[in-house]
Amino acid sequence: MAATVIDGKAFAAKVREQVAEHVKRLKDDHNITPGLAVVLVGEDPASEVYVRSKGKMTVEVGMKSVEHKLAADTSEAELLALIDQLNNDPEIHGILVQLPLPDHLDEDLVINSLDPAKDVDGFHISNVGLLGTGQKSMVPCTPLGCLMMLRDHHGSISGMNAVVVGRSNIVGKPMAQLLLGDSCTVTIAHSRTKDLPEVVRGADIVVAAVGRPEMVQGDWIKPGATVIDVGINRIERDGKKKLVGDADYESCAEVAGAITPVPGGVGPMTIACLLANTLTACCRANGLDEPEGLTA
Ligand SMILES: Nc1nc2c(c(=O)[nH]1)N[C@@H](CN(C=O)c1ccc(C(=O)N[C@@H](CCC(=O)O)C(=O)O)cc1)CN2
């Protein structure tokens, strides 16, 4: 039987609608407008597209959007000075530094210079520690989006076996923490895991976040399992450019119970969750209740 396709694009639109309703209420009841600052260093074409969409969607949900586009040769000191200015700006509740950064900039140093309360990417070491210890934190957008889709599809994922294929700080590790927080039995696997197909075959939930085009194959999937594909890989096939995930969609969809497509699955949820996180950061900064259903 063919898998149910989890429509991330439609789900993300619903999340953005909910965010917009909360933003309106914040304005009407408290005269507060959440503000998001996005910092882009350099001219990576994909990053430029993502930053443009973030700005557009921020404005669409009624928030204040600020974009800082810096030259590729911006020094670390200049970038840190801008972050310090944003950390101290009361109209800015969320700050995001678009990744990847040019090689001469120390990503960890830059991320850890953000005010953790404004770190809407959830990459600051304080937020990583808070998430790892089950405390209130800012949660990385892509894993949060995956969790929301899983909760929506399954209701509860408690007790399910989840295998996260990939161990990045941005997706794999926080994803595993979130699944554990929802009482899954979690395995973090990766490209060097011994007998990876057999490990994945034990999973009720497979999160493919390994960064290798179409690596997870249909015969690795337990019949009826849910496949969440985080990969975004631009490949060329039959002379045509194509966007594919880290799971081989055709073969996995034949066996899985549900699957996210690429494009139109996890990707759109990333920006929707960024907006949700900005709203959450704004509510926390103002001592207001957090929006229900939009946090981990
Ligand atoms: N500071 C950050 N940098 C990066 C992050 C991040 O979460 N924070 N994630 C990615 C890029 N990214 C957002 O920044 C992002 C990637 C993909 C999508 C998306 O909607 N993808 C579409 C396909 C779009 C396309 O055709 O290229 C989809 O999957 O349907 C949104 C945001 C790295 N950097």
Automatic annotation (TrEMBL):
Domain Tetrahydrofolate dehydrogenase/cyclohydrolase NAD(P)-binding, chain residue ranges per copy: 140-284
Pfam family, one: THF_DHG_CYH_C
EC number(s) on file: 1.5.1.5, 3.5.4.9
GO MF terms held by the record: methenyltetrahydrofolate cyclohydrolase activity; methylenetetrahydrofolate dehydrogenase (NADP+) activity
Any one annotated GO CC term: cytosol
Stretches assigned to the Tetrahydrofolate dehydrogenase/cyclohydrolase catalytic domain: 6-121
InterPro entries: Aminoacid_DH-like_N_sf, NAD(P)-bd_dom_sf, THF_DH/CycHdrlase, THF_DH/CycHdrlase_cat_dom, THF_DH/CycHdrlase_CS, THF_DH/CycHdrlase_NAD-bd_dom
Keywords annotated in UniProt: Amino-acid biosynthesis, Histidine biosynthesis, Hydrolase, Methionine biosynthesis, Multifunctional enzyme, NADP, One-carbon metabolism, Oxidoreductase, Purine biosynthesis
Gene Ontology biological-process annotations: L-histidine biosynthetic process; methionine biosynthetic process; purine nucleotide biosynthetic process; tetrahydrofolate interconversion
Annotated positions binding NADP(+): 166-168, 232
Known catalytic reactions: (6R)-5,10-methylene-5,6,7,8-tetrahydrofolate + NADP(+) = (6R)-5,10-methenyltetrahydrofolate + NADPH; (6R)-5,10-methenyltetrahydrofolate + H2O = (6R)-10-formyltetrahydrofolate + H(+)
Family classification: Belongs to the tetrahydrofolate dehydrogenase/cyclohydrolase family.
Subunit architecture: Homodimer.
Function summary: Catalyzes the oxidation of 5,10-methylenetetrahydrofolate to 5,10-methenyltetrahydrofolate and then the hydrolysis of 5,10-methenyltetrahydrofolate to 10-formyltetrahydrofolate.
Name of the featured protein: Bifunctional protein FolD
Organism for this UniProt entry: Pontibaca salina
